[in-house]
Amino acid sequence: MVNVEIQGKVYPPTAPYLVGREKVREFARAVLSEAPLHHDPEAARAAGYPDVVAPPTFAIVVQDSTLQQLLADEEAAVDFSRVVHGDQRFTYTRPIVAGDELTGVMTVTSVKQLGGNSMVTSSTEISDASGAHVVTAISTLVVRAEEAAA
Amino acid sequence: MIAPVFEQLSVGDVVLTRELHFSRDTLVRYAGASGDFNTIHYRDDVAQSVGLPGVIAHGMLTMGAAASPVAEWISSAGVVSDYQVRFTRMVPVDGADGADVTVTATVGAIDTDARTARIDLKVVFAEQTVLGKSQLVVTFA
Question: How far, in Å, are A2, A15, A30, B141 from residue A76 at the CA level?
Fold first, then answer.
């Protein structure tokens, strides 16, 4: 069971993540997207962006480093082998583009216990190098109950 | 594909249907691109040891790939400003046959003042919906 005392806990900012053009292209290929904005810097510039635009779920790469903080937190007591992804949301102020240097700060917004399962909802605010908000990534992780001893 | 014009969208319009094919290669590629190397996405023995039928797709691969046809459709006419899903069913990916997933995107709501359209995604594998409340908000220029 996840420790309900971590509700409200705020974790330290993650090390800055520099978004690379080839990483954006690699991620776009991995999610089967051929949209020119993800691949072609000229197409991106023509649309008013400084460089290629990341697909909408790319923020998971930055959010993941905050979720790793949660999984490594002994106080939280999250058993990774029992974690299932329950839901996910990204709310953008602007799209992520190559060249962005992004930092995430995660808050545990809710911990619920239900029938031996735990549901942990966290909200990660991702900002650029100027400190301006780019995207908020919200996840609910379901930590399944341990089976009764055989 | 013809880029959308905000003024021409109506609630209920089916804007696209797309078949996506996931193979084990797709999962390995997504693992590398995303950094999610959970072994249940490439080893049947590990997946089965935790009670799964075998290797399953990353939920985030399904979420990400389901949005790609929409990103291709909107092109530079707008941006995705919000995207949410619930992971309701797993997508097992057979070593030989892979998995075929169908995405249908429908206009769910329009806000003329904000120039936004909510696009609802129906994502189906083996005749069952695998993502719940799968909604994208596109903000038009």
Answer: 6, 21, 32, 43
Structural domains of chain B, count = 1
Q: How do residues A25-64 score in pLDDT, each as one tens digit?
A: 999 999 999 999 999 999 999 999 999 999 999 999 999 9
- Output the pTM of the full model: 0.96
Looking at the domain A4-19+59-143, which fold is it? Thiol Ester Dehydrase; Chain A (3.10.129)
The residue of B39, B72, B137 whose CB has the most chain A CBs within 10 angstroms, and thus the best one to mutate to test that interface, is B72
Residues of A in contact with B75 (CB under 8 A): 35-37
The residues, any chain, with a CB within 8 Å of residue B36's CB and separated by 6 or more, are: A64, B30, B58, B60
Per residue in B3-23, pLDDT (tens digit) is 899 999 999 999 999 999 999
Contacts of A33 in chain B (CB under 8 A): 65, 67-68, 71-72
